[in-house]
Records
---
Amino acid sequence: MDGAGSFGAGRAGSAFDLTAFIKQPQTILRVLAWIFSMVVFASIINEGYVNMGSERLHCVFNKNADACNYGITVGIMAFLASIFFLALDIYFPQISSVKDRKRAVLLEMVFSGFWTFLWFVGFCFLASQWSHTSPKELPLEQASDAARAAIAFSFFSILTWAGLTVCAVQRFLLGTDLTLFTTEHMGDLPPKQPYPSNDVIGQTTIPVDAYQSPTLIETVETRPPGYKIPPAF
């Protein structure tokens, strides 16, 4: 498990590899989601409103201001969220706590799934309103390209945010693998105490050398009665 960490990232404190980070599918999808969201809300803001010979502007999507407001709001929020989660991806390997990593992945998973749903609703909403827009009521030559771009990139945003949701789910499932919960990431847990010795509680271990019997010294008192010292040759 050398070099492996929890929730799909390297060990905490490891050096940041820009090349490997850019090549990650998650990073590519994040950048695409950022670009697509910018195209959607910028197209509507710049060319999504037309006038009918007066100062009052009408939303190009069947004069429904809610359609334009929805596309702008979802697009701007997705734009800001992409920047936030991109920064979080860069900082993620520096998070040492497994609990904090889990919260970050859960936040990304829930937000990505929810925004996939919002983009799906937005695509259906904009496409429906555009299909009911009549050239007789609005001068569509002024904003037709912007409307089509907003609808197209809303659809592309569904794919990118769905891909980000899949990546987040994979990271979450990878993080729940207990083999990845190394001791280096268990910052919230106290260090384990060593196993106690086989000694009885309250007793002190005595070294084996301490049980050596004393050297026998032959004295007169230790000789049995009638014992005679053999003569020396």
---
Amino acid sequence: MAISFFGLAIFLFLTLDSDFTSSPVSAASEGVQITYGSVIKLMHERTKFRLHSHDVPYGSGSGQQSVTGFPNVDDSNSYWIVRPVPDTNAQQGDTIKGDTIIRLQHMRTRKWLHSHLHASPISGNMEVSCFGSDGDSDTGDFWRLEIEGSGKTWRQDQRVRLRHVDTGGYLHSHDKKYTRIAGGQQEVCGVREKRPDNVWLAAEGVYLPVAESKHASS
């Protein structure tokens, strides 16, 4: 069952910092800035599948929680919370500049989008998984935001790439699909080359407004 925008807004209010009082934007619209604490879906530009995870481990490689591309829009396991890396001054509601290192936390399972040198199940590229928990995160969860074009901060209508810090691999998907446990879902993996299949866009979600006292230049 899909989580409604209203339900997501309630979730955000329950997890907001105590000094953050603005109301979240309850639906994505063109030009909305992505801020820390926003809950979003990432859409693979070429195939339109959403970045997805669920509590099903890979049967090979690391055996960690699997990450796939999901064909349907109305799926609650495709929501990700945009987080800063630890030990930074970034706050909830801050905008995110290009070349910033971020983390993506899977909303349902609380695990982090992760990668390493294990081989992905279908193509043999670098595996992308979910790993850790709220208080358990390492550099394998770090992704560098690369914005395509001239924009300085991440917006909902911008094409972006996410490059894994430890391995140098770009978050990637393609039309190679699973046939058994995750039938119809497509592989998500990491590749070191910059390709058209590395491009993602922020799609559905609840976007926290920019904190008034914490604007980043745009």
---
Amino acid sequence: MVQDNLGWEPLKTLGSLDQSAVGTDRTILISDAGEVYAFGKDCFSKSKSEVQETKLITTPQRVKSLTEIFVVQAAIGNYFTAVLSREGRVYTLSWGSDERLGNDTDHSCSLPQPLLGALENIPVVQIAVGFCYLLALAIQPTGMSVYSVGCGLGGKLGHGCDDCETQPRLIEQFGFLNIEPVMVSAGTLCVDDLFCF
């Protein structure tokens, strides 16, 4: 096996890589064929209320639950992972408890759940996730728009309040300001383990 001077081994079997996503506990790679590979912890989220038994995956492994979806982008949050399909559909894996992301799955769910509601028939071109929320850049007949869903603590969903949204909701302020967004980005700020947004 050939190694560079840092000890890294080349990934020979993945083909060309189109995109990567990095989280605190795992990394996701997407091939030019839309295949998803992951390594790090073997889960797609962290549980807030219980200790989750996980094992470490030390080499990229194909994510079997995503083999039927041609993935073009992935984003890793703390409580969930999201992927975007070539058809413009958003899927989330885990953290659907209490219907925070429009589905009612538990933190250990590794099956992709389509993000329904307002985005069900609107193509999405980019996603971004923070600690506990998701932003989606979508194509509307009038131009680009941004939808948000998840935890609204600190007003980060862009709706003029700090309410949580269980279904994707259009951020209307861009239209009021006559601004057409061209990309989305999200982040995480943790003051301590109990206060992250």
---
Amino acid sequence: RMAPQLLPLLLLLLAGPPAARPAPPTCYSRMLTLSREITADFQSLQATEPAEPCVRYLPRLYLDIHNYCVLAKLRDFAGSPQCWRVAQVDALKDKVRKLYTIMNSFCRRDLVFLSDDCNALEYPIPVTTVLPGHQS
């Protein structure tokens, strides 16, 4: 029969070492992740809400956090009056406001803009794939 005071120690040993905590997100990784979520949510909204005519009139939302025009794009989307009664659009606008705030204040020093091509934010960023063995 095991002594009662040994039971907690045995359980602790069986549980193993404590799990390593993941590193907290950096400003850059948080901005990148949130911008990708917003773009995916916008594309999903366009696909699932065709019954809502207002969705067609929302500003396009294809984000590239390395494009200087993204700040104006976020501001315009968050302030657009369209779809103010559609829950999915409200949730998307909240995410947009959050990203704008992060980019414009908390992480401003971490931003590096590689472009200022505003037209590039009007269309989805093409995904390029390279077949194995066909690199040039």
